[in-house]
Design brief:
It contains 6 helices and 19 strands. It is α/β, with parallel strands linked by helices. The protein has 2 domains: about 120 residues, Immunoglobulin-like (Sandwich), CATH 2.60.40.3500; about 180 residues, Zn-dependent exopeptidases (Aminopeptidase, 3-Layer(aba) Sandwich). The longest helix has 18 residues. It is elongated. It starts with about 20 loop residues before the first strand and ends with a helix.
Length: about 350
């Protein structure tokens, strides 16, 4: 993974997208048994919500978001008549939950909560039957939307699924550093040992590639979805250039606005710093494909610079790579509170 000063590309293949690009609504679903609307976007969003009357309907707007397809609607049940989703204007995607005639809901009972800035849910109170001939006053009510707060997850380890992604592979060697040290040959043994250590603790862990083969970025992300993973951990190494052997250190990345990803990144990063002799280059944000395309907590751990004098010497040693793997595995276990 070649790093240049100001980060124009921290992974040749993991291209950055323009920050001005509108967010897209990737997923929405209404659970009629729980009266809950779930939303996932591909970039940071802060919804707004209000209740309108006559008929009673909850309006959820996603500013700066495109729907990306024709307007759709979904019939629900005898209390909630229909849900409509579509592009309200050029800047806003709108979802409307319309109650059936004769039903209403209390605006005070509506809760909008964010698990991250890209994952939100709207919890509706149970719709209430209106007394006959009573028409509620047509006064809109805005719903408060607090900042997103990630929820600490404690998942039984037997149910936990972690996808570990050794970057590059096959024809894609990644960065090449001091003494011809290849990134793909450094990171694969680290990733493989992380998986082994997690399995030894009873956690389901899988590699996106099991040998020296090329795997596309889309396929790597798809494996996270296919395995219904709880986290995606990509492992890489950095490179500046041969004229900067003084640049060494650990970097850990998460997608902008991904609060759960940020917490996972900090947990792994701090575990590595406590256990491994390596300089600290910080926890950072980046819109790498494998990060921004994952709906689960996703991080990229850059385990050192293959062009750095200190890091290259360390990464060439099996004992150092083993220490790094142990620290990364411990960080994952700590994040999920695995005992």
């Amino acid at each position: 993974m070649k790093l240049r000063w100001l980060l124009p590309s921290l992974l040749g293949a993991l291209l950055l997208c323009p920050t001005a690009e509108a967010a897209k609504l990737k997923y929405w679903r209404f659970n009629s048994k729980q009266d809950r609307l779930d939303l996932i976007t591909d970039a940071r969003v802060r919804p707004t919500a209000k209740v309108l009357l006559n008929p009673t309907r909850l309006v959820v707007d996603l500013p700066g978001t495109v729907f990306g397809k024709p307007k759709t609607s979904q019939l629900i049940d005898k209390k909630i008549r229909v849900i409509r989703a579509g592009q309200f204007n050029r800047q806003t995607t709108r979802i409307v939950v319309e109650l059936a005639p004769g039903y209403t809901l209390s605006p005070e009972g509506v809760r909008v909560r964010g698990l991250s800035s890209t994952r939100w849910f709207v919890q509706l109170p149970k719709p209430q039957r209106l007394p006959e001939k009573r028409v509620p006053k047509a006064r809109p009510a805005s719903i408060p939307v607090p900042p997103p707060q990630p929820i600490a997850r404690q998942i039984p380890k037997a149910s936990l699924v972690i996808v570990v992604d050794p970057g590059h592979g096959g024809r894609d060697v990644g960065a090449v550093g001091i003494g011809g040290l290849q990134e793909k040959r450094v990171i694969f043994p680290i990733a493989s040992e992380v998986v082994k250590l997690l399995k030894d603790r009873g956690v389901n862990a899988v590699l996106t590639r099991s040998n020296d083969q090329f795997v596309s970025l889309a396929s790597r992300v798809a494996q996270g979805k296919g395995f219904k993973a709880d986290a995606f951990v990509s492992i890489h190494a950095n490179a500046i250039n041969m004229s900067r052997p003084d640049v060494n250190g650990l970097e850990t990345y998460h997608a902008p606005g991904a609060l759960s990803g940020a917490r996972l990144a900090r947990t792994i990063h701090n575990n590595v710093l406590r256990s491994v002799n390596i300089r600290d280059r910080g926890v950072r944000r980046a819109r790498f494909y494998v990060l921004r395309s994952s709906a689960i907590p996703a991080v990229l751990v850059a385990v050192g610079c293959v062009t750095g004098r200190e890091d290259a010497a360390n990464l060439a040693q099996a004992s150092h790579r083993s220490q790094m793997a142990q620290a990364i595995a411990n960080g994952i276990l700590a994040y999920f509170q695995v005992k």
